[in-house]
């Protein structure tokens, strides 16, 4: 048996630059996202431009377009990143719940706490930091599926009324988003009050909802 050390070394040498390039690409992309989050907070989404985002990095203007074609794509990436980071938090709320009401309250509270941390009070009002369109990215769709699965499990176990799971998941997400936005406009935001209100709203609404 022969050991071709020369071949192994050349393979290693070929791999290392690729790894370095990938790290550089990831770092550049993250720099753009970090700058965009800061610019949207300072100027508002509508007023912000790609040039503003580029100025917030140490990158050349041409580098930006290697990763994104517009500020809309940057915001989609930010939304995807937030949803990806929130999913395990949401799953943890489900695993810790001892009842359907406990799950609702824990999920709402987790979301409201997450957005308080995500959107510091300094800068433009939160509504101005977001585009006035609905974004359906892979990760935001995954959050919907996570919520729907939790609700279906609660229904199957007899903990929640057997209503239309799709409607209920959409309603819960809509309530979270709208109540969350209203909460962030208050100073200081009251996570517990918002979670209690959203939970009671869903539970009371379910009492009059038709069963599936």
Give a written overview of the molecule.
The structure is a single chain. Helix 5 (100-118) crosses helix 7 and helix 5 (100-118) runs antiparallel to helix 8 (191-207). This protein has eight helices and no strands. The chain is elongated, with a radius of gyration of 22 Å. It is mostly helical and 212 residues long. It folds into two domains: 1-69, Homeodomain-like (Arc Repressor Mutant, subunit A), CATH 1.10.10; 71-212, Orthogonal Bundle (Tetracycline Repressor, domain 2).
Which architecture name of the largest domain does CATH use?
A: Orthogonal Bundle
- Number of helical segments? 8
Quick one: CATH class of the largest domain? Answer: Mainly Alpha
Mean pLDDT: 86
Structural class: mainly alpha
Q: Give Rg in angstroms.
A: 22 Å
Gross morphology: elongated
Helix proportion range: over 70%
The name of the CATH topology of the largest domain is Tetracycline Repressor, domain 2
Name the poorly predicted regions.
1-14
- CATH H level of the largest domain: which superfamily? Tetracycline Repressor, domain 2
Q: In angstroms, what separates the terminal alpha carbons?
A: 69 Å
Write down the secondary-structure element order.
HHHHHHHH
The total tally of domains equals 2
Major sheet description: none
**Beta-strand content estimate:** under 5%
Number of strands: 0
């Amino acid at each position: 048996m022969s050991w071709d050390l020369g071949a192994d070394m050349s393979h290693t040498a070929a791999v290392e630059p690729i790894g370095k390039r990938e790290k550089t690409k990831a770092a550049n992309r993250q720099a753009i996202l970090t700058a965009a989050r800061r610019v949207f907070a300072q100027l508002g989404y509508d007023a912000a431009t790609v040039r503003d985002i580029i100025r917030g990095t140490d990158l050349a203007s041409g580098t930006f377009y290697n990763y994104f074609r517009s500020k809309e794509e940057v915001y989609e990436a930010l939304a995807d990143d937030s949803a990806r980071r929130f999913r395990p938090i949401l799953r943890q709320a489900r695993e810790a719940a001892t009842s359907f009401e406990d799950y609702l309250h824990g999920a709402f509270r987790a979301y409201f706490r997450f957005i308080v941390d995500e959107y510091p009070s300094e800068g433009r009002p939160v509504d101005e930091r977001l585009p006035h369109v609905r974004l359906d990215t892979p990760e935001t769709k995954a959050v919907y599926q996570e919520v729907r699965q939790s609700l279906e499990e609660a229904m199957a176990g007899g903990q929640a009324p057997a209503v239309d799971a799709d409607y209920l998941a959409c309603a819960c997400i809509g309530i979270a988003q709208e109540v969350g936005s209203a909460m962030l406009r208050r100073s200081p935001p009251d996570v517990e009050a918002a979670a209690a209100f959203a939970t009671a709203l869903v539970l009371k609404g379910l009492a009059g909802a038709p069963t599936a």
